[in-house]
Specification:
mainly beta; 8-stranded antiparallel sheet; 1 helix; 0% helix
Length: 844
């Protein structure tokens, strides 16, 4: 079992595989129909290994967690998937080394994936597809590769290198012999489906062809292909009664003449009629008789002159009678054609926007496409109530016009977030590009910090250098900032705190974003994890600011070292307005230094609260891969064990009831799982309150989800949490404990006995001293004569002490009482004639 999915067998329907006949073409099990493990998420297990494809991880149908829901399966009911990097291989026999072949396949990437793929023949690379992202038009992409085998056997290999938990999806792999001068047709000999069960009627689509009527695939043992010798390999297509197959052929040259040929036959005793049209013009129109015995299928041909850059080829059987079946095989189209165009590319993979915040969608068109003329790409928000293009027309679309030239070009369109939710960018018109690569998912969030874990886009060329854009962040020096994964040239030490990527800032660099939704005069914690590249002993500096005012200056950062945790920092600030610019910058005194940053979050917290890192689980940012599992990757601030992840409040599938309403994200712990953190700043013998929000997933085992709340191995509470249901608030709990020292380890545990499948939901963790004021405001104002006056309510606890320091990291010196009381305020005047000073109220 891999880390990205935990099966829940009680929740998923069973789909059984039908045994297939023993016939096969050059490629066996080309459509990945055998053998399917009906236990979710449908991995290979003993007895259910994907037949003849070594290295495949499993099969999925159109509801599987690896196949992208809503995208059509290219052929029949299943696709093969390979999770993580590695190879999927099959030994191929029966080739003629004197001939050339087309290797054809269909591919996609699971949502959230970024993949580089090499296709190899007997160890030699014959095709390379880099930067594979999910297809935004919800279809698999098609590749046709020229293959010149040196022997009659060889190994076909799909080899992938991936970023993170990426998965390649494959379907309809076939090899057909074709000579030079042939226009590329998809699945021209109908080998991509392989052997269909029973009488061969297609239970799903046939790769490359749109189907109308009763259509299927037969071998010579089938009830329809019951006479004659099939022209190419083992399979022929049949159309029973009136029906048709259609394919749109690209790369055609208008005004040129083309020759179309195919081999046809009829079921014994039938007299079907063949009608073939190209863009509506008749190419073939004739009766077809059975050839009988083992005679070759009849070769028929016709010609047409192209009237556009694409041709819709329709092959029909027109006799509408119960027992009239046409057999078709080995379709060939000869003539001049243009090579396939590189895909139109759209990105980034995801946008995280605040309500009223904006981001850019980028579209790149290849120089090959622009050499053929102007290209107009039309985009539209799939849900304009969630996010909309700012320059939208009356028809709800935005048009990007690329002028004809000889260079690859990129244009952008701005989107604005409107309210929390998820939408995507639809490509209404792809401008006559052959295919589209990439997808833009738009997540409008109410989290203060967007993309706080820097996972919103894949690290460029991971694990290479990593310079490049960072989703939701503005970069002052993109050439000196970007992303790294563990083992990258910059993230070369320390354990990444949250998920798999970190931001890097090399030399003098800055990243920033606007924060929305703050409450003026309220206090907040800015929290983050950081480290430095281990390089020649260089120790860089990191600075954090809110609206240009410094809130943290961390100097001379020493790398934490291999296998060690990153440093954590939490600093309090008071919001001056509803919006603010959050900025991080780096610099270095000597040498080539790089700061690494991760797990950035902002939470509202009152004065006097004990620091808990990532207390509302916002530091991970959006988790785009359903259903939200993160294990075994880390969650900033917490030590996790078991099966865990994050869901957006009310969005599910685990947060399927109740309202947490503590920003966006909620931690879920499935079955036997724990979340642990050691907090500091406590006073031995003092009583503290641990408060938090708790809920359970809908539909869990009756009686509620069992849990334990533990501090320093002492169980404060154990019980069961029922679903709060509907739009009810989460269960707000508060437990007391007595500190035994300056630190305490708090643990939240979901304790489920197998085979039960239950999930605990946790959010908004606070630790406060018992009896402490919930909030005490400290104000400061300048006086004449180089002095300042500090004030706080006289009703605040008398145990509070005013402290001062020249740095945020201390040491802090107490300004001892008594304090003057003026107009109901404790009042302290202080001279100010030296370096800058910081002040705080401290509860002993």
């Amino acid at each position: 079992m891999t880390a990205s999915a935990i099966p829940r067998p009680a929740r998923w329907a069973l789909i059984l595989t039908t045994a297939l006949p023993s016939f096969a073409g050059l490629v066996q099990n080309p459509s990945f129909e055998a053998t399917y493990n009906d236990q979710w998420p449908h991995y290979n297990v003993p007895g259910f290994n994907v037949e003849v494809w070594a290295g495949a991880s499993g099969l999925n149908n159109n509801t599987g967690p690896f196949h992208n829901t809503g995208t059509a399966v290219p052929d029949q009911g299943f696709i093969g998937f390979k999770q993580g990097g590695g190879s999927v291989t099959q030994e191929i026999t029966g080739l003629d080394p004197t001939k050339t072949y087309w290797l054809q396949y269909y591919y996609d990437a699971r949502t959230g994936s970024q993949i580089n793929m090499e296709v190899k023949w007997s160890g030699e690379t014959v095709d390379t597809v880099n930067g594979i992202l999910p297809d935004t038009t919800q279809k698999y992409r098609f590749r046709n590769v020229l293959l010149s085998p040196a022997a009659d056997t060889g190994t076909l290999e799909f080899s992938t290198a991936v970023v993170g938990d990426s998965t390649i999806l494959l379907d309809a792999v076939s090899i057909v012999q074709r000579d030079a001068g042939q226009v590329v047709l998809q699945n021209p000999s109908f080998e991509a489906s392989g052997d269909l069960p029973d009488i061969g009627v297609a239970a799903g689509p046939i790769a490359g062809w749109a189907v109308s009527g009763t259509v299927g695939i037969n071998t010579a043992a089938g009830p329809f292909a019951n006479n004659g010798t099939i022209a190419d390999q083992d399979h022929a297509l049949f159309i029973q009664r009136s029906g048709s197959i259609t394919q749109t052929i690209r790369g055609i040259l208008p005004g040129k003449s083309y020759s179309l040929a195919m081999n046809v036959n009829a079921r014994t005793g039938n007299t079907p009629h063949l009608l073939v049209t190209a863009n509506g013009a008749t190419v073939l129109d004739r009766d077809v008789a059975p050839v009988g015995g083992v005679a070759a299928y009849t070769n028929v041909s016709g010609t047409f002159t192209a009237d556009s850059e694409t041709v819709e080829l329709v092959i029909s059987q027109t006799v509408d009678a119960t027992d009239q079946t046409l057999l078709v095989d080995n379709v060939r189209l000869a003539g001049d054609s243009l090579p396939p165009l590189p895909p139109l590319i759209i990105g980034p993979g995801s946008l995280e926007l605040a309500p009223e915040g904006t981001g850019l969608v980028a579209v790149t068109v290849s120089k090959e496409r622009l050499a053929r003329g102007e290209c107009v790409v039309i985009l539209q928000s799939d849900n304009p109530g969630i996010a909309e293009f700012t320059d939208v027309g009356d028809d709800g679309t935005v048009k990007l016009t690329f002028p004809a030239n000889g260079e690859t070009a990129t244009l952008t369109a701005e989107m604005k977030g409107l309210q929390r939710g998820v939408t995507s960018v639809k490509i209404v018109d792809n401008g006559k590009n052959d295919s589209v690569q990439g997808v833009v998912s738009v997540d409008v969030v109410t989290s203060f910090v967007r993309n706080g874990s820097f996972e919103g886009n894949a690290a460029p060329d991971a694990p290479a250098v990593g310079y490049g854009t960072i989703t939701a962040w503005t970069q002052s020096n993109p050439g000196g900032s970007g992303l790294n994964v563990s083992g990258g040239p910059f993230a070369n030490n320390g354990n990444i705190p949250d998920r798999i990527q970190v931001a890097l800032m090399q030399g003098t660099a800055k990243i920033s974003q606007m924060i929305y939704g703050l409450t003026p005069a309220k206090k907040y914690w800015l929290q983050f994890a950081y480290n430095a590249r281990d390089y020649e002993g260089v120790t860089p500096n990191l600075h954090a600011s809110i609206d240009g005012i410094s809130v943290a200056d961390i100097l001379n950062i020493v790398p934490v070292g291999l296998g060690q945790p990153y440093y954590y920092h939490s600093v309090e600030f008071t919001a001056a307005a509803a919006t603010a610019e959050l900025a991080f910058s780096s610099d270095v005194t000597v040498g080539d230094g790089t700061v690494l940053l991760d797990g950035v979050s902002i939470v509202q917290r009152d004065a006097g609260e004990i620091t808990v890192m990532n207390p509302s689980f916002e530091a991970s940012g959006t988790v785009s891969v359903w259903p939200g599992y993160l294990h075994p990757s880390g969650i900033a601030g917490w030590t996790m064990a078991g099966g865990y992840g994050l869901n957006v409040d009310r969005r599910g599938p685990f947060t399927d009831n109740g309202l947490a309403e503590a920003q966006d994200r909620v931690l879920f712990m499935q079955n036997t799982t724990s979340a642990t953190q050691t907090i500091s700043g406590l006073t031995a013998g003092r009583t503290y309150n641990l408060s938090f929000l708790l809920n359970a997933r809908n539909g869990d085992t009756a009686g509620g989800t069992p849990y334990q709340i533990v501090v320093d191995d002492v169980i404060l509470e154990e019980g069961v949490q029922e679903q709060v249901g509907g739009d009810s608030p989460y269960n707000a709990k508060s437990l007391s404990f007595v500190a035994t020292g300056e630190t305490a380890t708090i643990a939240f545990k979901c304790v489920v006995t197998p085979p039960d499948d239950q999930t605990l939901l946790l959010d908004d963790v606070h630790v406060t001293a018992a009896g402490a004021a919930a909030s005490v405001d400290l104000s400061i104002a300048s006086l004449a004569g180089n002095s300042v006056v500090l004030r706080w309510p006289a009703t605040a606890p008398a145990t509070l002490r005013l402290k001062t320091s020249t740095t945020l990291s201390g040491p802090w010196v107490t300004i001892e009482p008594p304090y003057d009381v003026v107009n109901g305020q404790n009042t302290v005047a202080q001279p100010f004639n030296g370096p800058r000073r910081f002040y705080q109220l401290f509860q002993p």
